[in-house]
Amino acid sequence: MKNVLILGSTGSIGTQALEIIRNNKDKFKVVGLTCRSRFDDLIGQIREFEPEAVSVGSEDDARRVREEFPGLDVYFGEDGLVEIARMDCDIVLNALMGISGLAPTYEAISLGRDIALANKETLVAGGEIVTNLCREKGVKLLPVDSEHSAIFQCLEGNGGSACGRAYAEPENSGVNRDIRRILLTASGGPFRGRSYDEMKDVSVEQALNHPNWSMGSKITIDSATMMNKGLEVIEARWLFDIPADKIDVHVHPESIVHSMVEFMDGSVIAQMGLPDMKIPIGLALNYPDRLRLIPDFSGRDEDRETDGSLDFFTKGANLTFEKADRKTFKCLDIAYAAINEGGSAPIVMNGANEELVAMFLAGKIGFTDIPDTIERVMGSATFGRPKTVSDILAIDKESRRLARELV
Ligand code: NAD
Ligand code: MG
Fold it and tell me: Of the ligands numbered here, which is closest to the C-alpha atom of 222?
């Protein structure tokens, strides 16, 4: 039985994780839940999963929870997230949105808790200090992002170490020696094939209309600008300890191949499946074992389309790949430049992006103002190399202010 703390339990990843736990009560027990939005959903989750502690967005929300559930430990706000991260558990699922995930994750790692990581912004902003701490504490950082889960699965048993274990055994550099490159796949988002000018006037609704995945609004906009893939390049750089120039983005509109690894002997290993986040969430939570998410093979042709498996005669019959258009989708280039520059650059990029995506969602700026303003913020920001989580959060805050000023 694994005791699980879920940070961001009312979101897209959080609710899918709870669905898995609901169906695997013999394997998992929820000990803590948190949310900032969709408070009413949290109340239902508390009733169903009976955690020991929760953290909510505001003091008012905290009071309401205390009235209804005396005996429950209730925290609130940013400090509340860090406090709940200290609770005793076997694994923390970080399904928070944005930079809010960094501080609680760092806290949980410092106490030696394994992390199932959906929140890529934690590694984009804090990759160096977070992975160093994981190594020091022998903590497993298990990827939930589908591409990184794919790479993780491709690496297991190939070169003897994969993320998580690689961190526990830093002297084992087998991974880097054997890997030629990582082929990171991208769906291309709703505007694949469009020119930059054709994206200037797109609406929030159009940008939120992702072809293959249903996700929270911030990551959905990131997918449309392809900043999501840029963030994922940086996430992979830290998770797998591999230079960004060995990470090669391939647009794959079908979202069946979730990523691949090419080895120095010319072999390429891919991980495939229908686009369903329950697969990577389940593997991260139940690692090293797999869950039973689909029924046994019946052998009957009529079951192929409906048994939840990937049918290579239909959905898997035509898998295509194209080069990413990094001129049009500038965010991808911006992210490569940021990770190559290092230091504070990825933090500035991430902070500006988060602020600008929120402004776009609120109807305050246009779609292409997002990449254009990030470039300007990065051109005008100069910060020293951050050494602590508070340094990172200060740079994040200042980058957001710059983004608001320059837009
Ligand atoms: P979401 O917006 O649906 O949910 C986010 C959750 O975090 C909610 O419970 C929300 O209340 C909480 N939250 C948001 N901001 C907060 C803050 N400042 N303080 C405290 N709590 C806060 O997001 P999501 O789509 O589930 O994504 C979560 C993370 O997982 C993101 O980093 C995203 O990039 C990553 N991810 C998501 C998917 C997906 O399919 N949704 C896939 C890969 C990676
Ligand atoms: Mg992804």
Answer: 1
